[in-house]
C-alpha cells in the first residue's frame, strides 16, 4: 500500500482521470475525498470504492467558486483530520477558438475552472501542509500546457498557467517538505468532449493536424498510475516539474 492512511482530495473525481485517480488512491490505502460538481457521478465513484473495501466520501464543490473551495478543504479536515495529498484534476475544454474568436465569457470560464481553482485550492491547503512540514500537490495540466496546438487559445493559456504555477509552488516550498508537480497527459479517452461546445471550425482544423502523429489515445488508468507515483513517497525527489504522459506524441 503506497498511500496507507493518507488523506487525499481529488477534484473532478466523478469522471475520467479524476475517477481513476480516486479509485487507485483508495486501493492504495488512502482516505479519498471524491469531489465534483456532479453529485450523482461522485456518489457512484464513492459507492464503487466502498464496495471494493476502500474509504471514500463525497464533498461537492464547484472549483470555480471560492466559497466551495473553502468548504472542500475545511470539511475534509473536519472529517478526516488533515489533508496529505491534493489532486487538482477538475478541468474543461474550450471550443478550439484561436485568439481572434475567443469571447471574454469563454476565457473567463476556462480560466476559472482550469487555473484560478488550482491557485485557490493550493492557497487553502498550504497552511495545513506548512504546519506539518509535509504535503503533496498533483496538478493535472495537459500536453496543451507545454505545446501550442493541442486546443484553443483559452485552454492552452490556462494550462500553461497551471504549469507555471506548479513550478513556482514547487520551488517556493521546496525546503518545507512540500512537493508540487503536474502531469501533462496527451489525448486520453474520457468524457471531456462534453465540455466542448460551439466548436470553432478553423481552430479545430488546425488542432486536428497534430493528431496524425499521435501514437494512440491513452486511458485514465494510465494517468492514474503517474498520479500515484507523484502522490506517493516513490517520487520523494521529484518536485516543481511536469511529467508528460502521451505515448511519445510530443517527442516528434
Ligand atoms: N481527456 C484528455 O484528453 C485530457 C488531456 C490532457 C489533460 N486533460 C485534463 O485532465 C483533467 C480531467 O479531465 P478528463 O479528461 O478526465 O475529463 P472528464 O470530463 O471526464 O472529467 C472531468 C470532471 O471534472 C468535473 N468538473 C468540471 N467542471 C468542474 C467544476 N467547475 N468543479 C468541479 N468539478 C468539475 C466534471 O463534472 C467531471 O466529472 C482536466 O483538467 C483536463 O483538462 C484531459
UniProtKB/TrEMBL annotation:
It comes from the Bacteria. Pfam families: adh_short_C2. InterPro entries: NAD(P)-bd_dom_sf, Sc_DH/Rdtase_CS, SDR_fam. Keywords: Oxidoreductase. The keyword Transmembrane does not apply. Belongs to the short-chain dehydrogenases/reductases (SDR) family. This is 3-ketoacyl-ACP reductase. It comes from Paenibacillus silvae.
Amino acid at each position: 500500500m503506497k498511500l496507507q492512511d493518507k488523506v487525499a482530495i481529488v477534484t473532478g473525481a466523478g469522471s475520467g482521470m479524476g475517477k481513476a485517480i480516486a479509485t487507485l488512491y483508495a486501493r492504495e490505502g488512502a482516505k479519498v475525498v471524491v469531489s465534483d460538481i456532479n453529485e450523482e457521478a461522485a456518489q457512484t465513484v464513492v459507492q464503487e470504492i466502498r464496495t471494493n473495501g476502500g474509504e471514500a466520501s463525497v464533498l461537492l464543490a464547484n472549483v470555480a467558486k471560492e466559497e466551495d473551495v473553502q468548504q472542500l478543504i475545511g470539511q475534509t479536515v473536519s472529517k478526516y483530520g488533515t489533508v496529505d495529498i491534493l489532486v487538482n484534476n477538475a478541468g474543461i475544454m474550450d471550443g478550439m477558438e484561436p485568439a481572434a474568436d475567443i469571447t471574454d465569457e469563454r476565457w473567463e470560464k476556462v480560466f476559472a475552472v482550469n487555473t484560478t481553482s488550482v491557485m485557490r485550492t493550493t492557497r487553502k491547503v498550504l497552511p495545513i501542509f506548512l504546519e506539518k512540514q509535509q504535503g503533496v500537490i498533483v496538478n493535472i495540466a495537459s500536453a496543451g500546457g507545454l505545446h501550442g496546438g493541442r486546443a484553443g487559445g483559452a485552454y492552452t493559456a490556462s494550462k500553461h498557467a497551471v504549469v507555471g504555477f506548479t513550478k513556482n509552488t514547487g520551488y517556493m516550498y521546496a525546503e518545507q517538505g512540500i512537493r508540487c508537480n503536474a502531469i501533462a497527459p496527451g489525448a486520453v479517452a474520457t468524457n471531456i468532449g462534453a465540455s466542448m461546445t460551439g466548436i470553432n471550425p478553423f481552430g479545430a482544423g488546425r488542432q486536428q493536424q497534430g493528431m496524425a502523429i499521435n501514437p494512440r489515445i491513452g486511458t485514465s488508468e494510465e494517468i492514474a498510475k503517474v498520479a500515484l507515483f507523484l502522490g506517493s513517497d516513490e517520487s520523494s525527489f521529484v518536485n516543481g516539474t511536469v511529467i508528460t504522459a502521451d505515448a511519445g506524441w510530443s517527442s516528434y
